[in-house]
Each structure stands twice: as structure tokens, then as C-alpha cells.
Amino acid sequence: MSASADVGEVRDFVELLKPRVMSLVVLSGVAGLLAAPGTLHPVLACVAVLCILGGAGASGAINMWYDRDIDAVMRRTQQRPVVTGRVQPAEALAFGVTLALFSVMLMGLAVNWAAASLLAIAILFYVFVYTAWLKRRTPQNIVIGGAAGAFPPMIGWMAVTGTVDLGAIALFALIFLWTPPHFWALSLYTDIDYSNAGVPMLPVVAGRQATKKQMFLYTLLLLPLAPAPYLMGFAGPGYGLVALAMGALFVVSAARVLKDESRMQKAAKQMFGFSILYLYLLLAVLIVDATAGQIV
């Protein structure tokens, strides 16, 4: 086998991990770890982040194995490795399960078993509750299933403290409430794909206008929640100001979507991009704030 073929195969397995999703998972896990009261040895902190990364990647690989039938129908996912045959389904499943077991065991042995248990719950929730149960059965799939993506900051927090308290719950709630408007913005302009695949996303089942109203409501709920880390005392005023400003812009973005009646749903595409920036920026500022506080 040539070197280029080897590189291509490695790239295919990396793609199974959903690296773009993993980057946000890592950022949220680091935010929870640094914002938590107490400290963790830098080596153990790196191990904890690696385990969170591995758990997220494992979930993505198993998701691609399970969803290969509907991925083949949707234009956005037709080039995924399992769909195209670059990775065989059994290989994807074995890779995901092995990575999941390794990540949980390493977290337990190196950091603590409380964080490892929560990591295991997050993986199982994503695979069995969201992917296998909710995704194809209910338009609330993203609402309930979004909990899986909200676990990483709690896991990072628990890696330091061994417990879950109100600070960790606040970070969980932030991502939990962010997830529906983020994914519904995507589904507004890819609703035909979801309809063809038989996935009951909210725009497919309830219509675009009802979805837009729900999105607007979630951004209103996020507006007072996002500054909670500042109000609870584990983030500084800089974070609080950024959270309020970005929250207001998120509401404005949702309002624009609500008024957009065009077929192309340009406002929804813009909101989808902004929603990623929104969460990345809040987590980045929280990390900088927590790091500066530890240095001082």
C-alpha cells in the first residue's frame, strides 16, 4: 500500500470522529475544567481533555455507523467515510466502541471515576438515547438529545472537583439551550434532506414558521442565562459583558430569521454560522478569564 493510501485511510478514520464537532467539545470541556474551583495537575488535566475528546470522537464514529442509511440520502452527509465505503461499517463500529472504552477507562484510572462515569453516560446518551431512539422518532430529538453535547463542561468540572454543583449545571444549561436554535437554523435550509431521509426535524413536522418561533424563544431564554458564570462568581465582568452582547445579537439574529420568508432561508444560514461563533466566543472568554484568575 502506498504512503498516500495510508494517509487517506488515516484521514477517513479522523473524519469518523467529526473533528469540527470535537473542537467545540474540547473547548467546552476545557472551559469546565478551568472554571471549576480547585486545580488539577497539568498532566492530569491534559489526560482529562484527551478523554473528553476521545469520548466525543467515539460517539461520532458510532453515530456514522448507525446512521449510514440516512447519511446516504442527505446531500450534506453523502461523502462520509462509511457511506462511500472508504471505511467498512464493522470497522467504524469497532473503532468507536474501542475508543469509548479506552477513554472511559483512562479517565477513571488517571483522573477520577466520577468524571469517567459521567463521560460514559454522555457517550451512552448520545448513542442510544439520541442516535438510536430520538433522532428518527420525534421532532424534539435535538431538544432532548442536545443534553449529550452539554455534558463536556460538566465532565471537565467533575475531573477537578469530583462532584457536580451549580456552576457545572449552569454551563450544562448554556449549551443545552444553545443546541436547539443552532441545529434548527441548519435544518431550516436543509429540511428537504431531512424529509427525504425520514428524520422528523421540527421544520419537517411543524413547519418553518413554528420552528422559527421556537428558535426565537430559546435565544430569549439564553439571554439571561449566558451571564450566569459571572453572576455566580466564577467568571469576571468581561465575560458577563461579552455574554450579554452576544446574547443580544443572538436574539436579533433569531428575529431576522423569524421575518425571513424566502425559500433560500439566507437569514437561517447566517444564524447557523453566528451560533457557532456565539458559543466559541463565550467559551474562549471563559477560558481566558479562568486562566488569568489562576495566574493572578
From TrEMBL:
Locations listed in the record: Cell membrane
EC numbers for this chain: 2.5.1.141
Gene3D superfamilies: UbiA prenyltransferase
GO biological process: heme O biosynthetic process
GO cellular component, one term: plasma membrane
PROSITE patterns on file: UBIA (PS00943)
CDD domains per UniProt: PT_UbiA_Cox10
GO molecular function per UniProt: protoheme IX farnesyltransferase activity
Claim: Membrane is one of the keywords in the record: yes
Involved pathway(s): Porphyrin-containing compound metabolism; heme O biosynthesis; heme O from protoheme: step 1/1
Assigned keywords, A-Z: Cell membrane, Heme biosynthesis, Membrane, Transferase, Transmembrane, Transmembrane helix
Catalysed reactions listed for this entry: heme b + (2E,6E)-farnesyl diphosphate + H2O = Fe(II)-heme o + diphosphate
Top-rank taxon: Bacteria
Transmembrane in keyword set: yes
Topological type in the membrane: Multi-pass membrane protein
EC top class named in words: transferase
Membrane-traversing stretches: 21-36, 42-66, 87-107, 113-134, 141-160, 166-186, 215-232, 238-258, 270-288
Chief location of this protein within or outside the cell: membrane
Cited HAMAP family: CyoE_CtaB
Function text: Converts heme B (protoheme IX) to heme O by substitution of the vinyl group on carbon 2 of heme B porphyrin ring with a hydroxyethyl farnesyl side group.
Protein family membership: Belongs to the UbiA prenyltransferase family. Protoheme IX farnesyltransferase subfamily.
Further remarks about this protein from its record: Carbon 2 of the heme B porphyrin ring is defined according to the Fischer nomenclature.
Protein name as annotated: Protoheme IX farnesyltransferase
Organism this protein belongs to: Rhodovibrio salinarum
